[in-house]
Design brief:
One of its GO terms (molecular function) is pyridoxal phosphate binding. This protein is α/β, with parallel strands linked by helices. The longest helix is centred in the N-terminal third of the chain and has 25 residues. It starts with 31 loop residues before the first helix and ends with a helix. The protein binds pyridoxal-5'-phosphate. The site of pyridoxal-5'-phosphate has 13 residues, from α6.
Length: 370
């Protein structure tokens, strides 16, 4: 039984930062305080520069909200590898985030935004099959084709939170967050990159989505697999294999940190994991301290009368990262999806996106929001 499911207390979000993870678990090898100090000085300098600029141009000091400068390590660092723990926020991208909510008086010179007048389009429109038209002109068009904060269009992100609340009602929203991604594969690969190290093991249901297998191949990851059988996934096999690894009978396999699962209309077998089995699998994840990657692009496309329960909806321990996708409903080429998970993990993915794609397509995001 998960200790927290039994009514235990959640660790306070602002509790004392954890020092080291017990030996044998995770890769956390540094004092979190020293990493935080590392980025503090450059951000203090930046903040001082902002204050100077605002004084110089006579702007109100309130015009610019406080920069988010920290990646505060917490409960989930044991799922992160050394590279992920070294990530720091991109100053320009943090400024862009602030710009989105700053007063209109603030002139943003951080990133190279083209002047709206130089943009060659006057209108972009989408027409639905039922005749509904979505037209973007003027300032809406500028928003639709300009840079966005990495987490996504703030109004879309808010809508996604509400959407997740409606369909999954995850507990303790204050410990979770959402980020718009360029499809679910984008978020999934970034969480894999956040966690895996060469030779790590990962728990999967067999047959596994080939996009996941290709993703973990360069890590020479060992797949600890449980088979789909007539009655669903063989959770006994999953538990037995994990017990053997933990009791060090299988010394050559590392203790896994991740359980990857594609629970509805599994690609490629089409299997659907029942709600009851999901509960069993979640218990196993709690018992063996696994981060659950719930890759669920077909969630709304099942043939059941009722929508299935998601792992996210039963997540009392904040150990589920859920990947959703617009690909199977609106079209894969839009490259639009989103990820919901523990705040710290969403933050790592955000920092990764800050230096890779910068953000998912603005045009796609404003279109979906509208
Ligand atoms: C299980 C699974 N995960 C992820 C993806 C990729 O989805 P997206 O287009 O949202 O990146 C697919 C696409 O086929 C899939 O079947």
């Amino acid at each position: 039984m998960c200790p927290l499911a039994a009514g235990g207390d959640w660790p306070a979000a602002s509790a004392e930062p954890r020092k080291r993870v017990p030996s044998g678990r995770g890769t956390y090898s540094r004092d979190p305080h020293s990493r935080r100090e590392g980025c503090r000085s450059s951000f203090q300098a930046l903040r001082a520069h902002q204050r100077f600029t605002m004084r110089k141009f006579g702007l109100l000091s309130k015009a610019l909200p406080k920069l988010q400068t920290k990646n505060v390590p917490g409960e989930h660092t044991s799922f992160m590898n050394e590279l992920a723990l070294e990530r720091k926020p991109s100053i320009l991208r943090e400024l862009m985030k602030n710009h989105a909510t700053a007063s209109k008086n603030v002139v943003f010179i951080g990133e190279g935004l083209p002047h709206p007048e130089t943009i060659p389009f006057s209108e972009v429109s989408f027409t639905l099959k039922d005749g509904t038209k979505k037209v973007f002109t003027g300032s809406e068009l500028v928003t639709a084709i300009n840079y966005l904060p990495t987490q996504g269009n703030p109004k879309l992100v808010q809508k996604l939170r509400e959407f997740m609340d409606r369909f999954h009602a995850p507990l303790r929203w204050e410990d979770r967050d959402v980020i718009a991604t360029a499809g679910s594969q984008d978020g999934l690969s970034k969480v894999i990159e956040m966690s895996l190290q060469k030779g790590d093991a990962i728990v999967v249901a067999d047959p596994v989505y080939s996009g996941l297998a290709s993703n973990v191949r360069p890590y020479k990851a060992q797949l600890i697999s449980a088979q789909y059988r007539k009655n669903g996934l063989d959770t006994v096999e999953m538990k037995d294999k994990l017990t053997a690894i933990w009791s060090s009978r299988s010394k050559d396999v590392k203790i896994p940190k991740i359980l990857y699962i594609n629970p509805v209309a599994n690609n490629p077998s089409g299997h659907v994991i029942s709600d009851e089995q999901k509960r069993e699998i979640y218990e196993i994840a709690c018992e063996f301290n696994l981060l659950v990657l719930e890759d669920d692009p077909y969630y709304f496309l099942g043939f059941q009368d009722e929508l299935p329960k998601s792992f996210l909806s039963m997540d009392t321990e904040n150990r589920v990262v859920r990947f959703d996708s617009f690909s199977k409903i609106f079209g894969g080429g839009l490259r639009a999806g989103w990820m919901t998970g523990p705040k710290e993990i969403v933050r790592i993915v955000e920092m990764h996106m800050q230096v890779s794609v910068l953000h998912a397509s603005s045009l796609t995001q404003v279109n979906l929001k509208k």
